[in-house]
Amino acid sequence: MLVAPEFSISPSTSLLAGPDVRLERIDPASTPGFDGGKQAGEAKLTAGRKALSELQEKLFAESRFGSEISVLLILQAMDTAGKGGIVRHVVGAVDPQGVQHHAFKSPTEVEKQHHFLWRVKKELPGPGMIGVFDRSHYEDVLIHRVRKLAAPQLLDERYGEIREFEAELVHSGTRLIKVMLHLSKDEQKKRLAKRLERKDKHWKYNPGDLEERALWDEYQNAYQMAIERTSTPDAPWFVVPADRKWYARIAVQQLLTDVLAGMQLSWPKATFDVAEEKAKLAAT
Amino acid sequence: MLVAPEFSISPSTSLLAGPDVRLERIDPASTPGFDGGKQAGEAKLTAGRKALSELQEKLFAESRFGSEISVLLILQAMDTAGKGGIVRHVVGAVDPQGVQHHAFKSPTEVEKQHHFLWRVKKELPGPGMIGVFDRSHYEDVLIHRVRKLAAPQLLDERYGEIREFEAELVHSGTRLIKVMLHLSKDEQKKRLAKRLERKDKHWKYNPGDLEERALWDEYQNAYQMAIERTSTPDAPWFVVPADRKWYARIAVQQLLTDVLAGMQLSWPKATFDVAEEKAKLAAT
Q: pTM, whole model, 2 decimals?
């Protein structure tokens, strides 16, 4: 069996996107920090499942003894970039009991009547949980900017509101991982064509996808601006090259694993007298 | 590689527990309908993941085109019977996007002020989802009966309320699978002892578990009565022998797979003109 290679540089470092990031300089087909190809990447994904799963169980266990920390993975991307695959193949390694997944759709009429963070706050992960947002409050500075769904001044204020909101979140014990899956326009074309080719993929295709595609450059600009203005040391963005699905998956797996490993999790110590409980149990 | 054997009789038939079930006649260490041992069972669990995952994706896909059907798996059992393992190893095969898991704990003060079905209704699976209840409204006729947390007449009325509630649920498109993991008292002792032995399992142990264990027979009676009075053709109970974890897992996997297979799911037909979309995409 192939031994899965490790990253030479962790995506936590190599994919970190600070305010000075230039999206157009990042090649969506690149595989930063990983020397293997697809086969090695798939082996790495499989090999990494166990470590991630064990760390999650510790996070969950600690919450049962009063810890309030949690993790929130935010996934943003153009259509077909592979958000769903990340959820299935990376998050899917983790016990479903420990995952709070939420996909944000177009806001409902009720949601529209509230502040844009209102619906987001309702879906935040509880103590010990790994939250996963498939789209998020960033839609309110992405599609809202591209489609001019809000006044320019309102849009500008949102970056600050997001920074403040996320700072509070981090302060209250939630570790944030913000991921932009960085796809090329050509690769999207191939993936949309595949969805049209296969009858079992038609349900994933929406004619509206082409309208969004036509606004590709505007979206890249909106992502660029969102990252510039909301990437902070505590709530950093990671730009994950996504033309190779296998790479995006191992990269996000490693980002999650690194964050959990950095939390110094440990199995909670018994709050009862173990010997006494053993004796009691033996007597039953 | 070992070829995974199939059930000779599906658990959907062999484990079906009608109103005439007698729990004490079911051996918790038995493996009805399955001729292999642990190794074969584990191969079967692995082999069955793909079928389950594909069926779930179809269920989810149909909901995107207006279908409102869903599935709800209810897990009830004594401590250590393996509910968590079912979630991790059976439900874990399915895309996290398609799962709504909820663990019901002791009711909060707010929940206590409502009807016992109030908190349950809030957690029902949406269209296309597989809901998983780790404990459920059955606690209100199990621990409530054993611990006398409600007046006898009120308890008796709850069976009827549950039947009615579940009938409505089924009528509105949710397929119900109610599972009692049937553990022996001896096997529970071994599992509790193991939790006390291993430091990485201490967090799963609660001194209160022994108090519940002391009421073993009362719980068996309460389960017996709950199954007698709420197993209906549309909302049947399945008593799953649980002394062998591998067996309980393949049994529940098969129950889920059978229900989904029986739904005659198919990939939604495109509601757009495929050729036209292909042409439009090519022009981008």
A: 0.95
